[in-house]
Amino acid sequence: MNNPIPPKWPGNLLRYICKDHLTEEIEGDLAEYYADWVKANGQTQADRTYIWHAMKFVRPYALKRPQIISETNYITMLGNHFKLAKRQIVNGKGYSLLNVLSLALGLVAFIMISLWISHERSIDTFHSNQSRLYSLYYTADGADNTLGGYPIPFEYVSPQWDMKDALSVEIKSSIPGVALATEYHPLYELPWGYPHTFQLGDQLHKLEGSMVNADFLQMFSFDIIAGEKNNPLKTANQIAISKRMASLFFEDTESAIGKTLRYENATNLVVSAVFDDVDHRSSMQFDYLLSWELNKLGKVRRASNQWVTYLLLEENANPDNVELLLKDLLKERLTENGEIDVTLGMLPLDKKQLFSEFENGVPTGGKIEYIRTFSWVGLFILVLACINFTGLATARSIKRAREIGVRKVMGSSKSALITQFLIESTLLSFLAMILAISMVWLSIPALNSALGLQLSVPIYSPEAWLSSIAITLSIGVFAGAYPAIFLSSLNINRVMKRDFKFSPATIWFQKGLVIFQSAISVTMLLVTLVAYQQTAYVKNSHLGYDRENVMYVTIEGDLIDKYLLFKNELINMPGIAMVDRASEAPHAMNFEIAEAIDWQGKESVSKVGFFPTSVGFEFLDLMNLEVINGRGFSRSIPSDTTAFMINEMAVQQMGITEPIGKWISAWNKKGKIIGVLKDYHINSLHMPIRPLIMDVKEGLEFGKILIKTLPGQTVTAIESIETIANRLNPNYPVEYEFMDVEYANLYQQEEVASSLANIFTVISLFICCLGLFGLAMTSAEQRTKEIGIRKVLGASLLNIVKTFSSSFIFLVCTAILLATPIAWVLLQDWLGDYAYHIELSWYYFAAAALFTLVLTMLSISVQTVQTALMNPVDTLKSE
Amino acid sequence: MRKTYIGELEEVVLLTVVMLQEDAYGVAITKEIELQLNRRISVSAVHSTLHRLEEKGYADSYMGGATAQRGGRKKRFFKVTKLGGQILTEIQEARKLLWNQLPPNALLT
C-alpha cells in the first residue's frame, strides 16, 4: 500500500472540536505532511508526529464556539416543539378536550381542597405574637372516665365559687415564663348564652360579645382604632366595641369614645375603645368586650360556668417548662372533691380549633381529621387525573406511532422526542391549570354561599402562583413521562411496517391504571353514598320529640318576671298553639350537672352525670314526649313543683328498679319521682342518650320560652310574638329561632363535608368515565380490523358489543373487588363516630357496583356500537 | 483609521504567499519558509497566522485542488489582497526610508 493511513482519532477529534470549515484543509495538510514523515522516519514515528501536530491545532482560532451554536439550535428546536405540540393539540381536538377537561376537573378539586385547607389552617394565625400564644385545657381524671376541654369548669378553679379567683391572675403571678394571661368567655354560646342587649336612647341592638381580662387586647392583634390603646378594660364599667357596633349606635368611631351604653337594661358602660372588626380567620368572634371586673360584681349573665384561659409566654420562655409548672396548679384546691384529679395542659393557639375533640382528657382530633381526609381526597383526585392523562396519551400513541417512526428516520434523537412529548403534556397541563383556575374563580362565590365558607382565590399571592406553576410543571412531567419514554423507544422498523403492537408490559400498565382509577372512584362513590344515607338518617330520624313548628325566644329582661303573663297573653294570640319554657334549648342540651345528686336506694359509690332541665307544666305536651311509666307534671297537683321526672337511661344508671315514688334530692330540694320519660335525644346524634332529670321551675331567671305555632301559620305567629314581646319587654329587641333549623345547624360540619364529598365524587367519577371513554376510543380504533373480520364471519352486533365490553367490565369488576374492603374499613371507622348510625349493608356495595358498571357501559357503549356498526368493507380494505 | 499592526511572522507568511503565487496553501508555505529561511514552523502555527491575516483583511482564500496524497481533501489556497499588498509595500518603504538615512558604516563594529 503506497498510501499509509494516519491514525483516525485525531482527525475525529479535530472534526468534533474545530470549526467545520477548517477541518478539511487541516486534515488535508496533515495528511500531506504525514506522507513525508512516513518517508522520512517510518510509520510509528510519523504517527507520533501526526498526533503531536494535530493536537497543536487545538488553539483558540480553530475551536468551535460551542455555546452559541448549540444554543440557537436548542431554541429553534424548542420553538419547533411548541409549534408541533400546538398542532397536535389542535389536530386531535376531541382527545385534547378530553384530556384537558379531565385534568382540569382534577385540578379544580385539588385547588378547592387546598384553598379550604389553607383557610382552615390560617385560623388564629394572624396575631403578631402567634408563636407565643397558648390555650389551656384541663384533664379531669375521675373514677369512671376522663374528661377534658378548653373551657375550664370554674368549680375546678375555685371550689368556693369566689369570682375573685381568676385563673389567669394566679398563673401570671406564680408561673415564670408567662408574660400575659386572660380569661375568655363568649356570652352567646351554649348552654345558656344569647346575644345581649345594648341601648342608647331609643336604639336597641342585640349583639354577640365576650368577656375578657385586661390583658386580652395586649395579647392578641385586635387593632384598636380609636380610644384608649393601652388598657381599655381595666375597670368594670368600661367596654370596648367593634367598628361595626360603633356604626350601629354612633356616627363615626371617634364620636363613640366616652359615650355611655346601657347594657341589659341594668348597667351603664362607657365606651373606652373601638377595635377593628374581628377578622373572619379568628376563632374568637365578638362585637364587644366586657371587662372581667364586671363579672366579679355579678352583673354579667354568663353563658356557662366554664371559660377558656389563654397565655402569652415570654419571648425566651420554654413552653415545656411552663407546661410542667402548670400541670398541677389546680390539684391542691380539689382535695375536698376527692376522687377527681384535675391537671392542666396547654396547646398552641392555632392548634386549638383543629383539635377540638378530647379523648381521655387530651385533645386528639376534630377538624384536623377532616383536613387529613380531604388532603388525601385531593391528592387522590389529582393522581386520578394524572393517571387518566397518562392512560389517554399512551392509548393515543398508536395513532402517533408512524409519526414517531418518520421522525426517527429523519434523524430525531430519543431525547428530542422525549422533550417533544413532555412539552406537549406540559402545554396540556398548563391549559388545564388555566381552565381549572378560572373554573374555581367562577365557582368560589357559589360554593361559599352554599356551604357557609369564606374561601377566596389568592390572586395577589406570589406563593400561590409559584406553587400552581410548580404543580402544573410537575403534572406535565409526571403524567407525560410514561408516554414520552414509551413512544420514544418504539422500534422504527416495526412501526414503519405497521406491525405495531403494545407490549404486554404496556398493556398491563394501562390496565393497572384503569383498575386503580376505578377503584378510587368506587371507594369515593361508596363513601359518599353511605355518608349521604347517614346524614339523611341523622336529619330525619325520630328524636323522640317534635321539632316542627317550634320556635323559641330567650328569657331576658322583664320576661324573667313576666313569664306567666307573657305565656297567658301569647296563647290567646292568632297562630300560637302552645307556650312553655325550658332552662336550655331542648334540642341542644349541653350542661352536665356537677354537684352530686342523691336518691333513694343510691349506692354510695355510684355517681351519675345527670343532664338537668327545668321546664314548665306543658313542656311534655309541647314537645310531644312520651311517658312510659307514671305521669307527667300537672299544674293542678301542688306537690308537683317539687317533683322530678327522669328518663329511662337515668333509671338504668341509677340502678333502681321501681322508680315511681322514690325520692331524689337535688338543688337543695327533695321530691318524688312521678314519671319516667321514654329516652329522647337531647343533643345531636353524636352524643349518646344521657341520664336526664327534669323538674318544674317557672320563675327561673334564664332559659328559653318555647312556642309551638299552628301548622302553616308561622308568619302570623311571629307577628303575635313580636306584639306581645315588644309590649311586655320593651327594652329588648325580639329574636326568635326555629328549633328544626337550629337542630340542622348542629350538623353543619358534616353538612359541609358531605357536600364537598358529593362534589368530589362526581368529579372523580367523571374523570374515570372520561378515561374509560378515551380508552374505548383507542381500543376501538386498534380493533377495527378484528371487528371487521368477525362481522364477515357472521358475528352479530350483540356478539361484538359483548366481546368488546367484556375486557372493560372485567377491569372495573376487579376494581370493585379491590375497593370494597377498603371502603368497608373506612366507613366502619367513620360511622363509629356517631352514637347512632346506620348499619353498613351489602346493598350499598351492590348499588355502588351496579352504578359503576352502568357508568362504564355508558362510557364505552358509544364507541363500541359505533365500531360494531361499521361496514367491514371499509375497515378491511384499508390495507 | 488606525493602522492594523502586522507581526514579523505574519509579514514572513504574507510575503511567502505573494511569492508562491498560485500555489500558496498551508503545506507549501510551511515548506517554503523552511527552505528559504531555514526556519522551522509548525503547520498549525502557519495555519493560525494565515487565518489571522485573512481576518485582518490582508489575505483571501479559496478552496480547491484535492489530491490523492491528501486523502481526497481540498487545499485552501491563499492570495494576498490589495490591502495586504499595500501594507507590505508600506513596511518596505518605511524600512528603505530608515536604511537610507543610516550613516555609512554605522553598523560595522
Largest contact between chains? A-B, 19 and 22 residues
The total beta strand count of chain A reads 27
Strand neighbour order, sheet with most strands of chain B: 1-2
Q: What is the residue-averaged pLDDT of chain B?
A: 84
Series of H and E elements of chain B: HHHEEH
Rg from Cα of chain B: 16 Å
Question: What would a concise description of this structure say?
Answer:
The complex is a heterodimer of chains A (879) and B (109). Chain A has 879 residues and is of the alpha+beta class.
Overall description:
- The complex is a heterodimer of chains A (879) and B (109).
- With 879 residues, chain A is of the alpha+beta class.
- In chain A, 51% of the residues lie in helices and 16% in strands.
- Chain A contains 28 helices and 27 strands.
- In chain A, strands 1, 2, 3, 4, 5, 6, 7, 8, 9, 10, 11, 12, 13 and 14 form a 14-stranded mixed β-sheet that branches. In chain A, strands 19, 20, 21, 22, 23, 24 and 25 form a seven-stranded mixed β-sheet that branches.
- The longest helix of chain A has 43 residues, at 367-409.
- The two termini of chain A are 55 Å apart.
- In chain A, 38% of the residues are buried.
- The mean pLDDT of chain A is 85.
- With 109 residues, chain B is mostly helical.
- Chain B is built from four helices and two strands, in the order αααββα.
- Chain B has helices at 8-20, 26-37, 43-56, 82-101; strands spanning 59-64, 75-80.
- In chain B, strands 1-2 form a two-stranded antiparallel ribbon.
- Chain B is elongated.
- The mean pLDDT of chain B is 84.
Fold blueprint:
The complex is a heterodimer of chains A (879) and B (109).
Chain A: H1 9-17, H2 20-41, H3 43-55, H4 66-91, H5 93-122, E1 133-141, E2 146-149, E3 152-153, H6 154-157, H7 167-174, E4 178-186, E5 196-200, E6 203-207, E7 210-212, H8 216-219, E8 224-227, E9 238-242, H9 243-249, H10 253-256, E10 260-263, E11 267-275, E12 288-291, H11 292-296, E13 306-313, H12 319-327, E14 341-348, H13 349-352, E15 357-359, E16 362-365, H14 367-409, H15 414-451, H16 462-488, H17 492-496, H18 504-540, E17 550-554, H19 563-571, E18 576-582, E19 598-599, E20 611-615, H20 619-623, E21 627-630, E22 644-647, H21 648-654, E23 663-666, E24 669-677, E25 692-696, E26 704-709, H22 714-728, E27 736-738, H23 739-745, H24 748-782, H25 784-792, H26 797-831, H27 842-869, H28 872-876
Parallel strand pairs in A: 7-12, 9-11, 20-25, 22-24
Antiparallel strand pairs in A: 1-2, 1-13, 1-14, 3-13, 4-7, 4-13, 5-6, 5-10, 8-11, 9-12, 10-11, 15-16, 17-26, 17-27, 18-26, 19-23, 21-24, 22-25, 23-24
Helix pairs in contact in A: 2-3, 4-15, 5-14, 5-15, 5-24, 14-16, 14-18, 14-24, 15-16, 18-24, 18-26, 18-27, 24-27, 26-27
Chain B: H1 8-20, H2 26-37, H3 43-56, E1 59-64, E2 75-80, H4 82-101
Helix pairs in contact in B: 1-2, 1-3, 2-3
